[in-house]
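for the writeup, i need someone to sanity check this before i put it in the appendix. the sequnce is what the collaborator sent (i think, or maybe the updated version? ugh). structure was predicted straight from it, no edits. if anything looks off just tell me and ill rerun, i have time this weekend
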Amino acid sequence: MQPYELSLSAAADAIRARELSPVELTDSVLERAGQVEPRLRAYATVTAERARRAALEAEREIAAGRYRGPLHGIPMGLKDLIDVAGVATSAGSRVRAGHRAESDSTVAARLSAAGAVLVGKTHTHEFAYGLTTPQTGNAWDAGRIAGGSSGGSAVAVAAGTATFALGTDTGGSIRVPAALNGVVGLKPTYGLVPRHGVTPLSWSLDHVGPITRTVEDAATVLTSLAGYDPRDPASLDLPAVDYRPADGTDLTGLRVGVPRTYYFEQVDPEVEAAVRRAVDRLRDLGADLVGVEIPMARYVQATQWGLMVPEATAYHQDTLRTVPGLYQADVRVLLEAGELMPAGDYLRARRSRVLMRQEWARTLRKADVIAAPTVPMTAVKAGQETITWADGTEEGVTDAYVRLSAPANIAGVPSLSVPVGQDAAGLPIGMQLLGRPFGEKVLLRVGHAYQRTQPPPALAPAA
């Protein structure tokens, strides 16, 4: 096994035991990037020399007995919305040509303090306003979409060109590409991870979170990311938590909610079958399965778009008026649509979100977690715009991918996507676990228990 193939936890154990050096690991990851980047294009910028210097510094610190913890010397990718001092934050847009961040975002600073090594900035759909990341190819089939908007981050982790990465999630942008590329993606509770220094899409829906090979890895990264920052108005001052799960698989007494409505409607049969098999595995581990109704399901799409569109337009107001031609057509149309949305529609969407959060809280009293598909189908071919379901219904690709992930953003609850198999074409399938606000430890415990019963996660062939 090559060092780039190691999970974060395995690499950290080897580094701590002096069986692997950060330099060896970083060189392996950079060599892998050189091999697969021409096909996959996960990175907007590869900071190779910076990474080598940081890895060498980590190696010296560890040799001197100054080991900082499990992220020390571990190569990472950061979505190209996340500021790192002196490095471009292009947000995938010509609008940001020539931009350089003046200071670190909160999350970049925390990961740097933990000793992580920046490999580069990963591609995003322009300003995170989409669910395909058209610059990037799927790690399992470069002719299919990577998912978005954190497609570069998910592909980098799946292909071995980053040991872990960060993404952002406004309507599914961590979990969708994680599911489509066969890796783990965690959207934390709203307010748990600070967003200072991260280019926003929609202030009331945006989250920052990890994309990793395993659930254990996601818990390790979250432990370093979470914590109060007064520069983010949504950030909450909560006690520090170690999110890393214990090694056991016993889920006796845990109630897993299985949706009777919404989440299994208009879902590919192979996706549904894989998720239901995974749910049955949770039952085999001792969990109790309980049926749940998904509240206010008919209002999900209208609420998501009713919040996101005007908030995105408000952020882009000046550049939309001065340099509209620098935006890609799909994003410009959405931004212009936001200028036409009445204030009353936005206020009704905010009211709907309040009611939806109340109803989700009631539903989550009946179950400790809810298990459902992350997305309704595996990765479609690049350029495909619609899906036709078995009943003849046609749905836009973006609408389909956001449909099952958006409720967690509206309700602000944590959601974890875990790979649970592949379809007949060999494309990954993801199951999402949703929990109560600040219930990340429970989600991570369940996801880790499930993964402990599975073969070790394999890297994508990146062929």
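The chain has a mean pLDDT of 97. The longest helix spans residues 343-363.
thx in advance!!
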